[in-house]
Amino acid sequence: MPKQIVSILLISKLSCHKNIDIDDGFLSGLKLSYRFKDNENIITNNRWIRCRIDCDHIAQLIYFLYCFDNYSVYRNNVRKNLESITKYSSFDENYFDLLIKCRVNDLNLISSIIIDIDWCRRIQYFAILRMELEESLSWLSTLGGAYSSLGDRNLRFAHEAETISWKQMKLSLIYGDPNLIARCLIYLSHSWCQQGRRREAIKLIRHYLYPFLIRLSLIHNCDRIVRRMYQALCFRIRYIYK
Fold first, then answer.
1. Domain limits for position 132
2. What Pfam families does the entry give (predicted)?
């Protein structure tokens, strides 16, 4: 009875061969860790298969590793091929040498694949900008919360909280997140209530904040936390001016 491979784990170690140009060929080493059932139907411990990858282009190797990692059907096909290869081989040794050749039909398609450096730089700029915006908003939220908690006792802290809310509003407009814009409007209304500017706060809620939240709810894009913050703002206004 041939021994059946139960599971396979692929560990890749990419290394270009010294005597092969990266454009002409690519040679890589990887390990296949396998578990198999012996003649008595007992699953043994992990064994290693030392493999070498031979391909015409690095994209072929990347495609092989991607398919092996993401598609179960592809992994099963690899397992079946390994079973057919190792059927008449001895499993007594811990290591088994194997050469895997990766080939594709359309080599012209792979050779035409190039890295778009200009586009990568554009994407990198927006990614860095988003990270910087998130960091700035986190710092401003921390400072704004501290000033807002002290604004009930000291009017100067309420003015500082309003200034921070306006800065958050500018960043949220750059960020383009509607829920973040709604949060900034709520923060601004809180600071105006602390300063005694009740009419301006109510006007902001009626004419801007409430219609804005209604539009977000219609498109199912309103965050649950933002709705709770809006309810807390309404309760706060009723409590202050009761």
1. 117-240
2. DUF4807
CA 224 to chain centre: 22
Q: What is the pLDDT of residues 105-138, one digit of tens each?
A: 555 555 555 667 788 888 888 888 888 888 888 8
Query: What is the tally of structural domains in the chain?
Result: 2
165 and 201 fall within a common domain: yes
Question: For residue 226, what is the domain's CATH number?
Answer: 1.25.40
Q: Are residues 71 and 139 in the same domain?
A: no
Residues 6 or more apart whose CB falls under 8 angstroms from that of 49 comprise 31, 32, 33, 34, 82, 95, 96, 97, 98
| Residues facing 33 on adjacent strands | 9, 48
